[in-house]
Amino acid sequence: MQVARRIFDASRKGQRIVVNIYSATEAISSNSSEKTRLTLLLAHANGFHKELWEPTLERVFAHKSESWYIDQAIALDSYNHGDSAIANRSFIDSEEFSPWTENARDILAILAQLGSSRNIVGVGHSWGASSLLLAEIMAPSSFANLIITDPVLHSGSDQSANALAKLTLKRRYQWSTAEEACQYFNNHPFFRIWDQRIIDLHLRYGLEQVGEDESLILKCRPSNESAVYSGSRDDSPHAMQNLAKVQCPVAFLTGETSEQSPPTHIARITENMVDCRHVVMDDVGHLLLHQDPDRTADRYVEFLDGFVSKKPRPTANL
């Protein structure tokens, strides 16, 4: 899998969105004209970053489908996360409230800059998943399909977001050395249940060096992560209440033990969607992508198979 970096204009003047564009290492086969060409646009969870998609993408790219192939997978860092946070630091340093519609508008801005000639499948996790739904609600037919992984969809009366916002501000976010950070993430109960590849990627790409010494700090500051939790107040309910407006085929993947997106809740709120499939992955929670990226990838492949099987096969131009 090859990777290139690109910077897009955000929806707000002066801000930038940094993305990684992944493509297959192997040359596209000669019969590719008979297959559906797909572009994936990937939006991460709150507090994380684009590189955490890599183990899942490696496995998806390695899959040899007879009906589709991935031309590119575009993983973004939301405006106040990862490398985008570094690019936008002057805009976000005093941020206290981050509406989820801002993330959705940035996604639509990226789509506009990509052009309309692509068959785009949106793939999102948690906040990123909810942002993709909001983008499709705001601009119908932006996506050919959506893969929605454990989205955060709650009513306005949900108090968990406020609790998470306050708790996040108390989270440790700075370490004296890389070794100290490594010990912290590998031993902390919250992180040590993750796949080791995810932990390693978070250590490599989720932190930045500050000052002249060896100290490291999270690229996504606790204040920015907290602002996103606070921003769920209006926008998460809006997404949930307007799911029936999503016209493209959607596949939901939720963790069996997820507290953010209990499977019974997702099953109930998606009942009236036009074209919807819901799969529950056992033995994982809300961060299923981090706990088991390989099984997550396998479910994504199944979803892509299902999406493409509903479409007419392309014909070669002879």
From TrEMBL:
SUPFAM superfamilies: alpha/beta-Hydrolases. Residues 40-298 form the AB hydrolase-1 domain. It comes from the Eukaryota. This is AB hydrolase-1 domain-containing protein. It comes from Coemansia pectinata.
